[in-house]
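Researcher: Here's the sequence for the chain we discussed earlier.
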Amino acid sequence: MVWWSRVSVYTVLLFFIGFTFFVVFFLSPLGALIYSTINPLYADPGFLQRVYNIYLSLGPVDAFKEFLIVVGNPIIKSLQSDIIISAIQVSLITTSVSSVICVCFGIPLAYILSRYDFWGKKIIDTAVDLPMVLPPTVAGISLILFLGPNTPLGTFLHNSGIDIIFTWRAIIFAQIFVSAPFFIRTVSTAFSGVPRNLELAATNLGASPIRTFYTVTLPLSTRGVFAGWAMMWARAMGEFGATIMVSNNVPGQSYTLTTAIYWEFWSGGLFQSISAAIILLIVAFSVLILVRIVMSRR
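Model: Thanks. This is the structure I predict for it:
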């Protein structure tokens, strides 16, 4: 008896529905983005008509020059544009700073939430998770109301010579707000998975609480800490909604890859927006693969 004769119709239907959902809502959009880098005409279907109109009005020489734009793959060339290069630099710098801050302050909070029971813990737990479900624009308006130039704290900082909102510093705040929950939640779960008897054994042998943490708890949670950091870094790199509200969106100053995609697309720079999107896709895919590899190791 062949193997497919033992497969029920319900299993076939289940696979059909599942893979159809995957192809339509996941594979096809990503495939269109990737294919557009290989075939720029796919991203600009009116190109041939435009070349023909140039040929009729200006002649074959100008039409040939226009045609060379696609032959040279404008999406690849746009990676060398000053706007994209500056956006990459700003994204890498702000993401690195925000991830360092999240690690330094997120690990203690994650440890507290995983090891101690206290009044208000559930409120803090819920508040930490809120940015993962709130629209990014809510994060943006919250930061403006907290650090804006017309707020008490914002006015004090401005009088002290420190401006945050509508500068590159606001990007870091926005990235921390939306990405820190991924790190804190993942690390807290990793800490909870460390056997308490190992920590108690270290304490009984004379180790202080801090020494126990650095010699027992943290080493046994390394994979979870790394996974949390990677997810947080990727989320910060892809932050858009809050960033576009709290930064001044000036190329070279506060133009991240995500804002570059938005502004270049609406200003007619389709190929620049595609190149920036491809970079973010590669980064996100690489991070997820790396996390899966690290977490699968025994």
